[in-house]
């Protein structure tokens, strides 16, 4: 079964410091990996997907198949990055997205 | 553009009562989903639909039923509510099931079963 693990429930960093939110997946095939974000009083929304190799709001995430990880990184955290972040995976062609338990990021001014 | 709308947003039920959560989307999406979110558990898929008239079980379907009579609506029913169904329920939709994983979520419905 697919599983996504986010080991940190809470993460606090100072503004301007680098931030890394960890995500590990258990699927042995070729998964598709995503990061979703939920800002205060807003809906859960897609932040980025590994297949696009994009940088959104300064965040990047690299799929490391050897370590089965998809950590989310940003070199300089901003206060507006404070939010709940969910890592998610799906098997190619499947209809189901599996979500991790989420990490609440707080950026301290 | 409303996107995905869930009603009601809050509800308190007594054990054994029934209720229906309504999800409506105005994006003409084929796929719709119902998730529940519990502390420390993340989001877990209850049921989903790949098109009008179709439904399928997700990860935690027991105790729930769904219907997709119209493309824009996806109903989640609890026939006999139990305290274990106290949760925040999220509806989502996507253009296709393999549309790069982008789901559009509703605001959530908080259900408490006493």
Major interchain interface with per-chain residue totals: A-B, 26 and 27 residues
Helix content of chain B: under 10%
Number of domains of chain B: 1
What is the count of distinct domains of chain A?
Answer: 1
Class based on secondary structure composition and strand pairing of chain A: mainly beta
Major sheet characteristics of chain A? 6 strands, mixed
Instruction: Using the coordinates above, name the CATH class of chain B.
Output: Mainly Beta
Q: Would you count the extended β strands of chain B for me?
A: 11
Describe the secondary-structure layout.
The complex is a heterodimer of chains A (109) and B (114).
Chain A: E1 4-5, E2 10-14, E3 19-21, E4 24-25, E5 31-38, E6 45-49, E7 60-61, E8 72-74, E9 83-91, E10 98-99, E11 103-108
Parallel strand pairs in A: 2-11
Antiparallel strand pairs in A: 1-4, 3-8, 5-6, 5-9, 7-8, 9-10, 9-11
Chain B: E1 4-7, E2 10-13, E3 19-25, E4 31-38, E5 42-49, E6 56-57, E7 65-67, E8 73-78, E9 87-94, E10 104-105, E11 109-113
Parallel strand pairs in B: 2-11
Antiparallel strand pairs in B: 1-3, 3-8, 4-5, 4-9, 5-6, 7-8, 9-10, 9-11
Task: Tell me about this structure.
- The complex is a heterodimer of chains A (109) and B (114).
- With 109 residues, chain A is mostly beta strands.
- Helices cover 0% and strands 43% of the residues of chain A.
- Chain A has no helices and 11 strands.
- Chain A has strands at 4-5, 10-14, 19-21, 24-25, 31-38, 45-49, 60-61, 72-74, 83-91, 98-99, 103-108.
- In chain A, the strands form 3 sheets. In chain A, strands 2, 5, 6, 9, 10 and 11 form a 6-stranded mixed beta sheet that branches.
- In chain A, a hairpin with a 6-residue loop joins strand 5 and strand 6 (45-49).
- The mean pLDDT of chain A is 90.
- Chain B is an all-beta fold and 114 residues long.
- Chain B has a single domain (4-113), classed as Immunoglobulins (Immunoglobulin-like), CATH 2.60.40.
- The model of chain B has no long low-confidence stretch (mean pLDDT 92).
- The interface between A and B is medium-sized, with 26 and 27 residues.
